[in-house]
Amino acid sequence: MMSVSQTVTPEPISLSYTPDPVGPAGHIGLITLATDFNSEDDLRGILPDDVRLFTTRIENANPVTVENLRAMAEDLPRAARTLLPGYGVDVAIFGCTSGTSVTGSEKIAALINQGMPGVRVTNPLLAGELALNAVGAQKIAIVTPYLADVTRSVADGFIQQGFETTCVMGFGLDNDLDMTALPPQTILEAAIKADSADADAIFISCTAIRSAEIVAEAEQKLGKPVITSNQALIWHALHLLNYTKPVTGFGTLFDHAPKP
Q: Average pLDDT by consecutive 10-residue portion of the chain (260 residues)?
């Protein structure tokens, strides 16, 4: 049977249309860990519909130790260059609280700006500090999923910014999958356990855990502000975008603006 080859020339589509803007209120770039199972879903769940999140990943390795967290920072300039090259983003997020605590907020921003000059940068430690100041907290209880030395580095980061810690608790986990597998109700129970009368607020650390969804319930039970890494990141990023529409369902933090 003889086969006949054909050359097909597509018909051009000629339609009149107005392009839909992509993220008309702003573009946020997330640099998350290669092993992260949670932060993209968490952050998109909090973001308003008119702001878009674009993601890239940084090289890292489990277990989550101080040494491994410190080592991954050198990949930040490369990762930043992969965020919408040729277009850029309005705000860049580094999605790792513990990684920021061992490297430092200023160095994190400098490394990201090497790959994306001039972009505004936030991270969970910086956003958490600004959020706690915004809600008027001075004494804080801290809950983390980490090993003891990583938990200590996060607590030290807040202490260096002038906060007092009333309680510091960690689950002792050393990899991202186990952290994301923590049930939200277990995180809620930990926040309740860490609370005390002298704590002004609770800070729940780590972008890899599903804590944002229990913020409102935790605040209702505790009667005080609850700040989490991903919730604080979106709150700060939206303020860097000068976004003024209300965000509801993720705690009283969104009723506040960063203090000058």
A: 69 90 96 95 96 96 87 94 96 96 95 96 97 98 96 96 97 96 98 98 97 96 98 98 96 92
Express each pLDDT in 173-206 by its tens digit: 999 999 999 999 999 999 999 999 999 999 999 9
CB 33 within 8 A of CB 98: no
Distance, in Å, from the CA atom of 156 to the CA atom of 162, rounded to the nearest integer, reads 10
d(CA 237, CA 160): 23
Side-chain-side CA neighbours of 51 within 13 Å: the count stands at 26
Contacts of 125 (CB under 8 A, 6+ apart): 97, 100, 101, 105, 154, 157, 158
Distance CA 47, CA 29 (A): 12
| CA dihedral sign of residues 147, 233, 212, 202 | positive
Please name which of 177, 217, 176 lies closest in space to residue 72, comparing C-alpha atoms. Answer: 176
What number of CA atoms fall less than 13 Å from residue 43's CA on the CB side? 35
Tell me the CA end-to-end span of the chain in Å, nearest whole number.
Answer: 80
120 forms beta bridges with: 91
Domains and CATH numbers, the chain: 26-123+233-255 (3.40.50.12500), 126-229 (3.40.50.1860)
Helix (H, G, I), strand (E, B) or coil at 131: helix
Alpha-helical runs (H) found in the chain = 39-46, 66-71, 76-81, 97-103, 105-115, 124-134, 148-160, 176-180, 184-194, 215-222, 229-240
Prediction pTM value? 0.93
Whether the bond between 63 and the residue before it is cis, its omega within 30 degrees of 0, is: yes
